[in-house]
Structures are given as structure tokens and as C-alpha cells.
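The following block was generated as part of the benchmark described in Methods. Ligand: adenosine-5'-triphosphate.
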Amino acid sequence: KVDMRDMLDTLMVEAEGLSQGRHVIRMDPVTPLWLWGNAAELHSAFGNLVSNAVRYTPEGGTITLSWREEGDKLVFSVSDTGIGIPREHIPRLTERFYRVDRGRSRGNGGTGLGLAIVKHIVARHQARLDIVSEPEKGSTFSVVFGGEHRAEPDHDPRAEEAA
Ligand code: ATP
Ligand code: MG
């Protein structure tokens, strides 16, 4: 079970560390929502999306983390105002070693494995990865969980004693 409030706080600190002040990093107000899932795996998946947003967004851009309910779904997303992705590449992004343009991202050498790992972890949580992107405008990567993944916080035994 994952406390998404803690998860988002950790991801914010990691994003600031990767950005080193080169971007504006924001978090939409988070409703405290707990999620059934593997915390280490989800941290790795969300962290990959955050590191991509930092890597593929030029200095001065904005990166926004969000965690929200959408109807009966639970959605984690990372938006950036970065270089974006041409439409024809989007279906292939989660293939292992697939990179859009080795030339343009030369020097910030990824291996093209991040999104393959994300896809795998998302599938293990019966979730869906949505990618919306426009070249030179930016990208939004969303992980959409079914409502059955919603969890309730543990009861605090001290609170029960006091009652
Ligand atoms: P790795 O994550 O293994 O270090 P990588 O970042 O190149 O390397 P992926 O995370 O799998 O690999 O991403 C695949 C490709 O998708 C990237 O090389 C890049 O071309 C494109 N991409 C991913 N995220 C973004 C983004 N937020 N904005 C623009 N392009 C992106
Ligand atoms: Mg990556």
C-alpha cells in the first residue's frame, strides 16, 4: 500500500535534485489518496517519468507533477514544457532501446530503457500509460489506475485508544 502524498513529496525532492534549479517544478494540490501497489516499483516508474521530463525539457521550462481522481480512476501524471515527441514516434516509445532522435539528445545519453520499465510496471498494476505530446510544446505522461486500486489509510491505533 502506497501513501501517494509521501510518494509525491519524494518525487519532488528528486526532481529538484535532477533539475539543479534549471526548471520550475510544481506539484498540483494533492488529495491524500492511498493506492494498492508495490511502492518500490511505482517509485521506479514515476521516477523514470520525472527524470525524462527533466532531461527533455530545456532550461527555464516547467515540470508539473499531479495526483488526482478522475471519475472512478486514479491518475498520476508528469507534464513538461519540453521538446515534445513527434506523433509517429509515440506508439514505439515503450520499446526497449527506442529513442526518438539520438542526435537531438546526444550528450544526455539515455539508453532507451526507462519507458520499457515503466510499461512493465504499469502492466503489473493493471494500469494504463497515456502519452500526449506536441513537438516544441511539451509532453504529458499519465499512469491511470482503476478504482479498485484505491486504498484506505491504516487506522492509527493511538487515535483508537484515545477515542
Ligand atoms: P533511459 O531512460 O534508459 O535513461 P531514455 O530516456 O532515452 O533512456 P526512455 O525513458 O525509454 O529512454 O524514453 C525513450 C525516448 O522517448 C527518449 O529517448 C526520448 O526520445 C523520448 N522521451 C521520453 N520522455 C520524453 C519527454 N518527457 N519529452 C520528450 N521526449 C521524451
Ligand atoms: Mg528515460
